[in-house]
Specification:
Layout lengths: L1 H14 L1 H11 L1 H37 L6 H28 L4 H4 L6 H23 L1 H10 L4 H13 L2 H18 L5 H21 L10 H9 L3 H6 L5 H15 L1 H30 L14 H9 L4 H15 L1 H23 L3 H12 L3 H16 L16 H6 L4 H31 L3 H28 L16 H26 L4 H25 L1 H7 L3
Helix pairs in contact: 1-6, 2-3, 3-7, 4-6, 4-9, 4-10, 4-13, 6-14, 7-8, 8-13, 9-10, 9-14, 10-17, 13-14, 16-17, 16-21, 17-21, 19-21, 19-22, 21-22, 22-23, 22-24
Amino acid sequence: MKQFIALIKAGFKTNSPFASLRLRMKMNKRDRIMIPLLGLLVVVAILTPLVFLLLKLVSNLFELLQPIGQTQAILTLVIMAGQLFVLVFGIYYMMSVFYFSRDLEFLIPLPLKPFQVVFSRYSLILVNEYLGLAVLVLPVFIYYGILKDMGLSYWLRLPLVYLLLPIIPLAISSLLVIILMRFVNLGKKKDALMIIGSIFLMLLIMVPQFMAKPGGNQISHDQMVNFLAGKGGFVNMLAAKFPPAAWATQALEYGLSGGAMGFFLNLGVSLLLLLGLLYAGERLFYRGLIGMREVGARKKAVSAAGLDRSVNHGSHPVKAIFWREFRLMNRTPMFLLNGIFTVVLIPGIFLAMFLTKGGNDGKVIINFMTSGKPVIKILAIAGFCVLSGALNGTASSAFSREGGNFWISRVIPVSYRHQVLGKFLHSFLVAGLGIFLASLVTIFMFTPGFFELLAAWLLALTISVAFISIGMAVDINRPLLDWISPQRAIKQNMNVFVAMVVQFGLLAGAGYLGVKLFNGGWNPYTLLVAFFLFFLLLALGAITYLLNGARRKYERVSV
């Protein structure tokens, strides 16, 4: 037991983002001021407005549902959103922590059972999920209790229900990852199979949530009566595809009088899934881990002529750096999965929503809202393309991803400007893929004209160039090179977080200013041109800063 507790403590010290921040504050006096200030900025500028908007939505839904006695559907909605978030993103986190952490090389020889390693890793991610759900779920639970004037028992059972929320979806994700890795970690193409399998699991989870039931979306008269008159009508309808959300709602809303069954169902299924996870970990975890770092032999020998061509007639340095970045990402599944996660998932979610039975209704609503307002349609398409393509950690971890091998970039005979440009082109390729996929979806969603789509593309590409340059500029100043797990190079990298804050801040500021100017009498097309010019100048300035300061920044990095 002491070994197991020590294992959990060591996992938190090496993988927890808070441990990393505490170390940085301890080692650098400047971070002792900057990190708390950044945290305060995030709370004031991002989390507070988001929570305010969320609670405003809850208030409106409460007023709508209170006359028909279905306010508990609010709890179901937020619980489903939180659990679905854990379920989908848990696949990525679990694969990274279970199979791609460097400290696994030290854990495997230790006298530890496989299930102990699995449970320690599960516990680490579980704590992180509690922190994530605290932003989405807890404010709604508290505000709902205030609106409905719930009694003392509600506040006593609230923490119990909250503690159970992520256990089931995270256990399901962990089981799926362990089973996947047991079978795909074979042969020469195991990295490709991991990526394909991960995307397949995410789609397997997401797509059924949007698919209509047999018989379409038509609700009979009797069903409508049950929804309106029944104690849990809307709750059962919303949680039909994921019952734990209904169980949690019943436990929180009705307590012992009517929700005891929901609480014990949640608790029982959680324990069963945890036992199943430990059993699968004991039987399959090490089998899936074997061969993770094996490298296949190269069958084709390099001829003398081929070697001469490579040495004397090599490609342009920028092209060479681009392909190095491309291969580095492709050979590290966690880097590739992170890079294409939002690029594929966000357009995929919207496409799945619009391919369901009710998708045509949503399409009609969108087109009605944007009819006669082409500028709004252009901005909506451009925003969706930027969200899908540019707002990921590829650019803001471009230098951090090299890790301990960054010294190679310092000694290779390639100018630092060329290295920066090659990394920029690689990040732009990822963003371009997202813009392309998002464009295909928006053609179906918005049915834009050719010139509307062209204008949206130009604006999206310009914003993407600016955001890529900003992300790289943040990362090149202080790259995170001492990471243990590839996940930490991106998901626990403060540079990615800072870049996201700046990017969302620019979008929010531009949107706020645009609304003010529009209400002040500005022509919509003049505003569109102003947006384009602003982000164009921002992109040129950021690229110039990157290229001109490349040598100084590279030489300042200690490896």
